[in-house]
Amino acid sequence: MKILFIGGGNMANALIGGLIEQGFATRDIEVAEISAQARARLSELHGVRTVPSVHEADPAHDVVVLAVKPPQMATVCRALGDKFRDALVVSIAAGIRTADLSRWLGGRDRLVRAMPNTPALLRAGISGLYASPAVDAKDRREAQRILGAVGSVLWFEQERMLDAVTAVSGSGPAYVFYFIEALEQAALALGIEAAAARKLAIETFLGAARLAARGEDPPAVLREKVTSRGGTTERALKVLEASAVKDRIIEAVRAAEQRARELGEEFGRL
């Protein structure tokens, strides 16, 4: 499998690094990236071939990964013309729907849309994937290998669910950072010095997430196990429940999902 990345930003860098770590040959990866600085960085880090334009890329690629910013996607797709006509196209741009990709690409129908998240930079991400009807089992395996190089992969049979994936896991790291920030500020307010406050907040999240990831108990049961009747945790959770924090989190994720749908409509008018 030969892969062309169009765009050489952080997510492309993560995917390339993950693929190489899994034994993928650098000679089978090429990156088209307009920034000379980004090209130099990718060449230095991974030893892959880079070019400033898709028109200078090797035409013999099996997969083209669209890794540019959403506002740039229409222009990039239209610039492809008939190049890489036989390649599977994988988009990792948030909000860009396959119908719009197909239109901009002149009617191509072998399309996979992916929604990764930023922990992919540490090979700890999770990606939601949707395949258009023309994508066969081999194409799915190739797309899964690429996104699976940076974490877990979940397939969805309805494209509209990727808006929900965007709201939950795409934006999700920001929610986690927000809560870590709040826990750190609480520690500071209680007199804990700054370095210790940050370490306590971060390590608590890391450890709790590992417990939840074991899957022996659902999060609600794990929470109950920590909450002794009449104890400190119960007192804290009562404050959160009184402020309907869980409801506000659900409301926030719904707002993110709505915005994802709006962005899809806006990008579709480009």
Secondary structure layout plus pairing:
Blueprint: E1 3-6, H1 10-21, E2 29-32, H2 36-46, E3 49-51, E4 63-66, H3 70-80, E5 88-91, H4 98-104, E6 111-115, E7 125-131, H5 137-148, E8 151-155, H6 161-170, H7 172-189, H8 194-213, H9 219-226, H10 232-242, H11 245-268
Parallel strand pairs: 1-2, 1-4, 2-3, 4-5, 5-6, 7-8
Antiparallel strand pairs: 6-7
Strand content: 5-15%
The main sheet comes to: 8 strands, mixed
Helix-strand topology string = EHEHEEHEHEEHEHHHHHH
Q: Which segments are poorly predicted (pLDDT under 50) over 5 or more consecutive residues? A: none
Number of strands: 8
In DSSP terms (H or I, runs of 4 or more residues), the helix count works out at: 11
Which strand order spans the largest sheet, edge to edge or round the barrel? 3-2-1-4-5-6-7-8
Average pLDDT, rounded to a whole number, is: 96
Using the alpha-carbon principal axes, give the shape.
Answer: elongated
Structural class: alpha/beta
Separation of the first and last Cα atoms: 32 Å
What would you report as the Rg, rounded to the nearest angstrom?
A: 21 Å
Measured as a percent range, the helix fraction is 40-55%
What does this structure look like?
- It contains 11 helices and 8 strands.
- With 270 residues, it is an alpha/beta fold.
- The chain has an 8-stranded mixed beta sheet, with helices on both faces.
- α1 packs across α5 and α7 crosses α8.
- The longest helix is centred in the C-terminal third of the chain and has 24 residues.
- It is elongated and about 70 Å long.
